[in-house]
Amino acid sequence: MPQILINGRPIEARAGQTVLEAAQENGVFVPTFCWHPQLSIAGNCRMCLVEVEGRGLDIACNMPVSAGMHVLTDSPDVRAHRKAMLQFITLNHPVDCGICDKAGECRLQDYHYAYNGEASLSADPKVHSTKYYNLSSRILLDNERCILCLRCTRFTHEISKSMALGVERRGDTSNIRPVADRPLGDDPYSDNIIDLCPVGALQSRQFLHRTRVWYLRATPSVCPGCERGCTVQVWHRKPEWHVKALDPAQNRSIARVTPLENPAVNGPWICNKGRDLARIFERQRALEPMLKGRPVPLAEAVETARELIGRARRPAALLSNWGSNEELAAFRQHLGTLFSAHLKRDREAEPGERSEDDLLIRSDKNPNSAGVRAITGAAASVPDAGTDLVLVWGEGCDFAMLPRGAQVIFLNAYLQPENGHADVFIPISVQTERHGHYTNFQGHISEFQPCFPRPEGVSDAESLFKSLAQPARVHA
Amino acid sequence: MAGRQLLMTFPVTATSHLLTEYRARGGYGALEKALRQMKPQDVTQEVITAGLQGRGGASFPTGRKWQVVIPGDGQPHYLIANADEGEPGTFKDRWILENAPHLLIEGMLLTAYALEARHCFIYIRGEFDLPYRRVAAAVEEAYAAGWLGERIGGAPFDCDLIVYRGAGAYVAGEASGLIASLEGKKGYPRNRPPRLTVRGLYQRPTVVNNVESLANVTGIIAHGAAAFRAVGTAKSPGTRLFSVSGHINRPGVYEVELGYPWQRFIDEDCGGVLNGRALKAVVPGGISSKILTAAEIAPLPLSHEALWDVNSTLGSGGMIVVADGTCMVRLLQIMLRFYHHESCGQCTPCRHGTGWMHRIVDRIVAGEGRPEDIERLYYIAKYNDGTTICGLGDAAGYAASGMLDKFRDEFEYYIANKRSRYEGRLECLRS
Amino acid sequence: MKSLIPEFEALRSRFPAGFESSLVLPCLRRIQEQRGYVAEEDIEELAEFLDVPRIQIEEVLSFYTQFRRQPIGRWHLQVCRNVSCSMRGAETVLAHLERTLGIRPGETTADGRYTLSTVECLGSCGTAPALMVNDRYVENLTPDRIQALIRELA
């Protein structure tokens, strides 16, 4: 265990570590652009220059610790060099902050104020380059803002392995470019480069100019796109920044989804499907309980359901693998002895969607099959022919395949034609309106928090199961 | 002759580069001797004792570089001859490639033997035409005669040599950029650690040596380290090839015994300054070495230590002679344009700094210089010194700061008067 | 590229095992020698033949000055204008060529015969000023020698 000094403080480093790692593990901050714990060392930004007594300055990210070294991360020489590196980086960098989505979460902005704070020393016009380059249908590239840290190209070479990005030309006219046959559009992990980019060079086209990041709150959640259950951050407007004069739908919409770092499950990445959760959660919602398509008050729908349950001789439940562990526990507790339980796959892969790979994507495109199995014991099976009542919870049920003559109680969040065919239909809430947990295919349990209030008239499945388990009122 | 000669020891004719004539001069005798009487580590030790310094630019002790490679470590080792010769003002490796290719090949074989390198490469810049054809032909001759391939000289020593052509990039002459290029990629230099002698070509221990360094290995093994040390100075043993160009009567490649007086070399061996003009300045070793004034070079011998003492270097041996009446601002403009064009673009200070410096001097030359430009150039040079992935950034800075240190008044004049003091002249005045 | 495959196979066998990636530069050089430039389909075929990522070939093509993805004139005149050549009259050489051919650096004559470029140091400083015409060095240039060269190439 090499002993080193950082800013005069003795540090117990680990053999084989770099000075940057030793500093970070001991609470000493060294600024970096190109370094990333999951990517190879590029050592090109030169922002992490530190001083080693007797040896001068060198980058910390590639510097092995050696016993007895005295490292200075904040000496006058280091400060002067950091300032100079920022002068170089901002030499041709456009002052786009006023129109750049990265503002407020931009590392270059932060470092400029922390370490430079001066105007440019250059009297010459900036070198210009492409500003609106369509890297793919999802990502816009601004080469002027790019600081060529090469995090994005390294990601496509080392992590997603799409080999989609590279550098054309050399010197200060170098540009990040996609390979000509454009597999970045085919790379289901492409949007991670937007998070990786330390400046506003890579922008999400779906988020472009939608809102300023400081109006948003990031709520921890779990991506329901597959049984990996990557933890994510769902960004939505903070209550104090709710719009009053504009479309109120903005107050309950998902502005964007980004990864929530999780060493056990997904590391710092998610796939693009997780970015598109609004496509799933913001479909048109079912808001009215119905009896065979006729809107009724909730109490009447619940009472009718209780009657059906009371009369049924062989009730079966098709469980939602989008149900949370809490909802599943409530089902088991209140209805588990009444119903035979069957695991249903709410959603399948869409045409063209990658089935499975050895990075994150799993072929079961639902978040909680493991939870269903563990909590209710249900397996993937179909109700047998004698079933006379089916409780369908969630999407993915082919109503034509249900046992003939069986009555149907249908619990669903979204407006779908099948809602009107069920004997009893009750609208339920979605993940972003509740707190809960999912269990992923490896047994990891991850938590999600609510982002929005439930719409008026919509029930939580958890309390609904308890309510349905009550006996029907005896009719006179 | 500028002192004793070790390399240019035969008259160059239309056929003197051929194997038959090389052999007749005693060629491949050193290799035979080494294979019969020396162990690999003996060869390394001889080169260390000789004190051979790299002839590519850095002047690093050659034997010390080889020592990092661990014999018998179970990994392939590679030897690469750096024949990229892109440093402006330098064309002396070209002389070896065209006229003494077998001297290089034999030196490479001796080195490969010392390093346990089964495969060698000559990385030759893509533009070189005749040098490439001569070297490629020499390699074929060597294979045919059994000096390359398996069981060389009847000994249990196998070695294959591939001649690999570059495609136009000065930065691919930097050892790690060269390796990246030889791996079939863009010539991006690499951070150290690890040193290339630990992880180089395809992450294997690799030694990259300059052509002239390897050519010298042959003589050192043939005649012994002591004979090499007897030539030159204590701190700069042996000779160096200098490529002399610019405002000089007899440009060309000269072999100079280290320690030889500089002024005499210019006036007598090279025929003196063109058109009888006065000497103004000399770029000693390629434009990446700091320029020296006529007054500075006058008392100096041509040796490593003498130049290190005046904060310059023999570098690549590319000596450019500058006569009076030359506009040093325009000269710097060409140099900075070069670095700007050749910067690979990987690291922040060089990528932006080379362009910035070039634009500043362009502006000065166009009559739009500003008073702060000189300090700006020094600033950019300072923060490219020791901060970059490879030496290109530093070199660009040295060209600028070196020129400003010696000829600041010309820049101040140009900025103040919006024109050159010397009519922007680059060619030599008539007498 | 197909006609070059036997040659590329022979070249591959000269390199140590695992060095396929190294073949990118020599193969591109041969492709360009044959076609005059490197075409889209060459990139595709070479990437497949060597099993290297296509992006690597695209980067190489744009990084090195000697590779081109568009055809140029029959005779490529590449004039050095670095330090020593400039000190021995490169600017005069360039001006002379511009006048004679009626084009500027980066341009090709209308009849497709000559393309003019400026290049950095060719390592011919002792015989400055110098230029390359296609693969050949032409050194110790004077206006007369340039005229003779143009006549020879015509």
List keywords for this structure.
heterotrimer, A: 476 residues, alpha/beta, 5-stranded mixed beta sheet, 5-stranded parallel beta sheet, 11 helices, C: 154 residues, Arc Repressor Mutant, subunit A, Glutaredoxin, 4-stranded mixed beta sheet, 7 helices, elongated
What does this structure look like?
The complex is a heterotrimer of chains A (476), B (431) and C (154). With 476 residues, chain A is an alpha/beta fold. Among the domains of chain A are: 3-89, Roll (Ubiquitin-like (UB roll)), CATH 3.10.20; 290-468, Rossmann fold (3-Layer(aba) Sandwich), CATH 3.40.50.740. Chain A contains 11 helices and 22 strands. In chain A, the strands form 7 sheets. In chain A, strands 2-1-5-3-4 form a 5-stranded mixed beta sheet, sandwiched between helices. Chain A has a 5-stranded parallel beta sheet with strand order 17-16-18-19-20, with helices on one face. Chain A has a 3-stranded antiparallel beta sheet with strand order 6-7-10. With 431 residues, chain B is an alpha/beta fold. Chain B folds into 3 domains: 19-229, NADH-ubiquinone oxidoreductase 51kDa subunit (Rossmann fold); 239-323, Ubiquitin-like (UB roll) (Roll), CATH 3.10.20.600; 328-417, Up-down Bundle (de novo design (two linked rop proteins)). Chain B is built from 17 helices and 9 strands. In chain B, the strands form 2 sheets. Chain B has a 5-stranded mixed beta sheet with strand order 6-5-9-7-8, with helices on both faces. Chain B has a 4-stranded parallel beta sheet with strand order 3-2-1-4, sandwiched between helices. The longest helix of chain B has 27 residues, at 391-417. Chain B is globular. Chain C has 154 residues and is an alpha+beta fold. In chain C, 46% of the residues lie in helices and 12% in strands. Chain C has a 4-stranded mixed beta sheet with strand order 2-1-3-4, covered by helices on one side. The model of chain C has no long low-confidence stretch (mean pLDDT 97). Chains in contact: A-B, A-C, B-C. The interface between B and C is large, with 59 and 48 residues.
- Strand residue content of chain C: 5-15%
Low-confidence segments of chain B, ≥5 residues, pLDDT <50?
Answer: none
CATH topology (level 3) name of the largest domain in chain B: Rossmann fold
Mean pLDDT of chain C equals 97
Please identify the top-level CATH class of the largest domain in chain B. Alpha Beta
Radius of gyration of chain B: 22 Å
